Amino acid sequence: MAFLADSLSRVKPSPTIAATTKAAELKAEGRDIIGLGAGEPDFDTPDHIKEAAKAAMDAGKTKYTPADGIPELKKAICAKMKRDNDLDYKPNQVSVGTGGKQILYNALVATLNPGDEVLIPAPYWVSYPDMVLLAGGEPRFIEAPLETGFKITAEQLDAAITPKTKWFIFNSPSNPTGAGYTRDELKALTDVLMKHPHVWVMTDDMYEHIVYAPFEFVTPAQVEPGLYDRTLTCNGVSKAYAMTGWRIGYAAGPVELINAMRKVQSQSTSNPSSISQWAALAALEGPQDYIDTSRVAFQRRRDLVVSMLNDAQGITCPTPEGAFYVYPNIAGCIGKTAPSGKLIKTDEDFTLELLEAEGVSAVFGAAFGLSPNFRVSYATSDENLKEACTRIQRFCAKLV
Ligand SMILES: Cc1ncc(COP(=O)(O)O)c(C=O)c1O
C-alpha cells in the first residue's frame, strides 16, 4: 500500500515558487541576480493598515474568530462589492479565508466530484489546474493565444462546455499575461454561459485594482446579473494593498455554496488570522490612495518593460491591460544556440540559459500552459527593470 495519497501524484509543485527559490540560491552563492519572478507588489503595506493590526493586538483581538471571518469584515466586503462592482451581497453570502488561494481551493473542494470538469483558459495562474486535481476534478483548458490578446472567444467557450462542466474559472486581469477583458468581450462570454445553466463561474478578481486607463475592470455577475445565482466572486487584499503575507482573501456568492465552503474551512484551518482580518478591514474601509499611487508606478514600469522587451531580438511583447506581469513571446529565439553552446528548444531552456548567462530569473511559459513565452513580473524597482531588460536584450543579441 502506497503511503502518499494517489491524488498527490497528479499534482506538481508550484513552478513559480521553484523559480524564486533557484534565484535565491544563486544569490546566496554571491551571483548578481535580478529576480523577475515575484508575484507580489514590491511596496510595503500602507501604514494605516499596519496600525490597525497593532491596535487589534493591543485590544486583545487575538483569539479564534468565526471560522469564515468576523462580521465587521464581512460587512465591509459587502460594502466594497457594492462600491466597486455594483453587486449586492449580504454578510451571510461572504466567506473570508487565508488568502485568495484558500478561498478558491475551498470552493473546489466543496463542489467537485470525480469526473467533474473545470474550464480554465490557458495561460493560467499555476495553481488552478493543480487545485482542481487535488479536489478530485478534471481541468480542461481553452487556449488563449497571443493572436487574440491572450483572451478566449465566445465560440471557444461554447465548444469547450460539456455536460460534465461544473465551473468556468475566469481571471481578468490575468496572471500571467496581464490581459483584461473589456465589458463587451466579457458579455460575449457571459452570453454563452447563460445558454448553459449547469455551469458555474468562479471569477478571480485579484488584480481588479491594478488596471491601466482606458481599460475598465468588470466582473461577470456585474456584466450579466442573470449569472448572480451561480457565480462565486473571489477577491482579496494581497495584491490591491500589498498585503501578500497577511493572508486574507474573500469571496461572495450563493448562501449554499458559502455554507459548504465554511464547512471545509472549519474542519481544516478554521479562521484566518484574527489580526490580519482587522488589518484587512482597515484596508477596505480606510483611505484608498495607495491603490492609485501603486497603479501609477506599475503603469510606468509596464511601459518601460514592454518597450525594452520589444527591442530585444526574437521577442514580441504585447501591452497588457492590467496586473504587474508581461508575457512576451519568444518564438524568434527558439531553435537558436545560447552563449553556453546549448540549443534553445523550449521556453524552459530559454529561462535557464538567461539565468546562467545574465543572472536574470523569470518563469518559463510552459508552467502557465502556453509556450513559447516567459513571464516577467515588473513588481520591482525601475532600476532593476532597466538593468534586467538590458541584460535580456544582450542575451537575445548573442543567440545564434
Ligand atoms: C490570479 C491569482 N489568484 C489568486 C492568487 C492568490 O492570492 P493570495 O496571495 O491572496 O492567496 C494569486 C497570487 O499570486 C494570483 O495571481
Structural key phrases:
alpha/beta; seven-stranded mixed sheet; three-stranded antiparallel sheet; 14 helices; 12% strand; binds pyridoxal-5'-phosphate
How do the helices and strands line up, and which of them pair or pack?
Blueprint: H1 6-9, H2 15-28, E1 34-35, H3 47-58, H4 71-85, E2 94-97, H5 99-111, E3 117-122, H6 127-134, E4 138-143, H7 154-160, E5 165-171, H8 183-194, E6 200-204, H9 220-223, E7 231-236, E8 249-252, H10 255-266, H11 274-285, H12 289-310, E9 325-326, H13 347-358, E10 360-361, E11 363-364, E12 374-377, H14 382-398
Helix pairs in contact: 3-11, 4-11, 5-6, 5-10, 7-8, 12-14
Bound molecules: pyridoxal-5'-phosphate (PLP).
InterPro entries: Aminotransferase_I/II_large (IPR004839), AspAT/PAT-like (IPR050596), NHTrfase_class1_PyrdxlP-BS (IPR004838), PyrdxlP-dep_Trfase (IPR015424), PyrdxlP-dep_Trfase_major (IPR015421), PyrdxlP-dep_Trfase_small (IPR015422)
EC number: 2.6.1.-
Protein name: Aminotransferase
Terminal CA distance: 52 Å
How many domains, as an integer?
Answer: 2
Helix/strand-derived category reads: alpha/beta
The description of the largest β-sheet is: 7 strands, mixed
Strand content: 5-15%
Contiguous uncertain segments of 5+ residues: none
